[in-house]
Specification:
7 helices, alpha/beta, 220 residues, globular, two-stranded antiparallel ribbon
């Protein structure tokens, strides 16, 4: 799918931003997500290899919501370091959007977040914010969950599962976007999220398997 094919589906500011990044062709998972209803508020679970373009799927959803004044977007990542990385990336790419990073004190309600459009945080921090009864939560229309396969993690999984359950209960019309490169039961997870499942094996660099022995590699 060429970028021009979605020009009438996205806000002009978003289209210009993508064009300035020299994005001419959408990758398979991005095209499939759009066809599945990404811009129509549908929940989407994207299970594709690392480097396949999942992050742009998240960006498209969040910015579509913000630019069209639909509502705020929350981007959940598993680690503070990753949250910082995403925050810097988004701030650089979209200087016209109010983007906040919230990974600090779990005892704080971070009331200043009410004035931001995209909030990047961890599942533990968002869980804490919800328990502080944050009033701006009702304005959230998009929730992106990066590395959603961690829902099966013994240590962090329960918090993430409860968090998703809370969000689905509190925000009846929220759009959930799940991203992962490794999910053992994608169909079951998609059913639980009531999401369109996007599966694809495309990757930017072909993956080869081989055995290294005595200075030589024999590929399969």
């Amino acid at each position: 799918m060429h970028l021009n094919e979605i020009q009438n589906k996205v806000h002009q500011r978003l289209y210009i931003s993508l064009h300035q990044r020299n994005l001419q062709e959408l990758r398979p998972c991005q095209e499939k997500s759009i066809i599945a209803g990404l811009f129509d508020g549908k929940n989407v679970l994207v299970c594709t290899p690392t480097g396949s373009g999942k992050t742009l799927v998240a960006e498209l959803t969040a910015l579509h919501s913000v630019y069209n004044h639909i509502g705020k977007a929350i981007y959940i990542v598993p680690l503070k370091a990753l949250a910082n990385e995403k925050y810097k990336e988004f701030k650089q790419r979209y200087p016209d959007i109010k983007i906040a990073l919230s990974v600090g004190d779990n005892d704080s309600d971070d009331s200043y977040l009410a004035g931001y459009d995209i909030i990047i945080t961890t599942s533990e921090k968002l869980d804490s914010l919800i328990r502080h009864s944050i009033p701006w939560l009702r304005n959230v229309k998009v929730v992106i969950i990066d590395e959603i396969h961690l829902i099966n993690d013994e240590r962090r999984g329960p918090t993430l599962e409860i968090l998703i359950t809370l969000l689905k209960h509190l925000l009846k019309n929220v759009q959930i976007i799940g991203l992962s490169a490794t999910i053992g039961n994608p169909k079951e997870l998609a059913e639980w999220l009531d999401a369109e499942l996007i599966l694809d094996n495309w990757r930017p660099v072909k993956l080869k398997k081989g055995v290294y022995f005595e200075g030589k590699i024999e590929f399969e």
